Amino acid sequence: MQQTLSIIKPDAVKKNVIGKIIDIFESNDLEINQMKKIKLSSENVAQFYAEHKNRPFFTNLKDYMTSGDVVIIVLEGENAIIKNRTLMGATNPKEAETGTIRQRFATDISQNAVHGSDSETSAKREIDFFFPKI
Ligand code: CMP
Predict the structure, then answer these.
(1) Are strands 31-39 and 2-8 parallel, antiparallel or unpaired?
(2) Quick one: pLDDT band at residue 100, thresholds 50, 70, 90?
(3) pLDDT of residue 2
(4) CATH topology for 2-130?
(5) Domain boundaries, the chain
(6) At what angle do helices 80-88 and 120-130 cross, to 10 degrees?
(7) Nearest C-alpha to atom 20 of ligand 1 is from which residue?
(8) Ligand 1: which of 40, 81, 110 to mutate, most ligand atoms within 8 Å of CB?
(9) Which residues are near ligand 1 (CB < 6 Å)?
């Protein structure tokens, strides 16, 4: 069993599709291990997305990710990392395959409905970031 971190981002939360997205995870044998709905601070976003801090879209990313509540989910299942990324579809919803979460629910490349860890190393870092072990 593998774990991965998913974030349902502010645009999807505002569209009231949290349940529809969770249904896609559960229908594809991904279980919810931990989950919380929170509002991120700019500091949270700067730390979480540290690798993107020099990208031109970083200020936009911070504004967007702090614009409303997000749902942070630890998903668990066989090949959870790649499975979640397949279910999400491409970063740019215009390039996302039909039926993927981003194709169905994303607004555009910046406001793209969901985040998913891209490797085992980032999954561990991202899960520890939001659900630190006591
Ligand atoms: P995510 O997979 O969470 O990782 C970085 C985020 O930056 C990405 O989703 C988008 O929300 C956002 N972003 C905005 N513009 C771009 C871009 N041009 N390329 C990649 N990511 C972008």
Answers:
(1) unpaired
(2) very high
(3) 98
(4) Alpha-Beta Plaits (3.30.70)
(5) 2-130
(6) 90
(7) 91
(8) 110
(9) 52, 57, 61, 91, 109-110, 112, 115
